[in-house]
UniProtKB/TrEMBL annotation:
GO terms for molecular function: ATP binding; dTMP kinase activity; nucleoside diphosphate kinase activity. The keyword Lyase does not apply. Pathway: Pyrimidine metabolism; dTTP biosynthesis. It is an enzyme of class 2 (transferase). InterPro entries: P-loop_NTPase, Thymidylate_kin-like_dom, Thymidylate_kin_CS, Thymidylate_kinase. The lineage of its organism: Eukaryota, Fungi, Dikarya, Basidiomycota, Pucciniomycotina. Keywords: ATP-binding, Kinase, Nucleotide biosynthesis, Nucleotide-binding, Transferase. Coiled coil: none annotated. GO terms for cellular component: cytosol; nucleus. Pfam families: Thymidylate_kin. Belongs to the thymidylate kinase family. GO terms for biological process: dTDP biosynthetic process; dTTP biosynthetic process; dUDP biosynthetic process. This is Thymidylate kinase.
Length: 214
């Protein structure tokens, strides 16, 4: 490369949404479609239950262990920091990272317990910033009717209702155009087509010539 020229980096795409809104389904689908189109892409997910902190988080979520609200909040954040450098390296090597939940979930699920907004935000400050957050919008009742709902700690309609409100506030705090809400109560393919269109816009945009934000 000529001096000063910079290879375009990968895009950091985050999916957020209530439990069972279809995030994991869309992450897998998007990664596959990008790779088929010759765009290098990998998946990431939080909590990553395979990491050291992830094992404690898994015990907490499956209700085998109880933890203080602050302790679990910090573990979720530490879980992201355990992976942060890998994500940054992938992006800078030109690989797009498609991530299933991120710091927005971290803040939303803790803030509804009464922890202050600023305290909840603090431990995630400095993490790689997404280029696009795709928020899958679904009513708690529609999500509940999907498979597997109800086994884990936060899978209760009342909790999901409050988390929905916290996500709304978070969306309003994100830079214009970087938080996009998609109607998720549709077929997988229909949602997926809109996802791909949004992601292609980001990949073609000027942002990929700039450094990953924080
Ligand atoms: N959490 C997370 C915190 O408290 N703090 C944090 O910092 C973080 C990162 C676990 C919990 O941890 C909390 C939030 C969560 O409560 P998780 O492991 O990601 O987080 O678990 P969930 O988000 O609950 O994952 P789910 O698997 O439940 O939901 P998804 O990924 O949104 O949904 P998905 O794709 O697995 O689909 C669920 C079901 O619906 C079907 C699928 O086949 C599947 O059966 N489905 C559809 N059905 C009809 N139409 C569609 N369009 C469909 N798409 C998928
Ligand atoms: Na999931």
């Amino acid at each position: 490369l000529a001096a000063g020229a910079r290879q375009r980096r990968g895009a950091f795409i985050v999916f957020e949404g209530l439990d069972r809104s279809g995030k994991s389904t869309q992450v897998a689908r998007l990664v596959q479609q990008l790779n088929e189109r010759g765009v290098k892409a990998v998946a990431a997910r939080f909590p990553d239950r395979t990491l050291t902190t992830g094992k404690m988080i898994d015990s907490y979520l499956s209700q085998k262990a109880d933890l203080d609200d602050r302790a679990i909040h910090l573990l979720f954040s530490a879980n992201r920091w355990e992976r942060a450098n890998q994500i940054l390296e992938d992006l800078n090597r030109g690989t797009t990272v498609v991530c299933d939940r991120y710091a927005f979930s971290g803040i939303a699920f803790s803030a509804i317990k009464g922890l202050s907004w600023s305290w909840c935000r603090a431990p995630d400050i400095g993490l790689p910033a997404p280029d696009l957050v795709l928020f899958l919008r679904i009513s708690p009742s529609a999500a509940q009717s999907r498979g597997g709902f109800g086994d884990e700690r936060y899978e209760k309609t009342e909790v999901q209702q409050r988390v929905k409100g916290a996500f709304k506030r978070l969306g309003e705090s994100v830079e214009e155009g970087k938080w996009v809400e998609l109607e998720a109560d549709r077929g997988v393919d229909e949602v997926g087509q809109e996802v791909l269109r949004r992601v292609e816009e980001v990949l073609q945009g000027a942002g990929m010539d700039k450094e990953v934000g924080k």
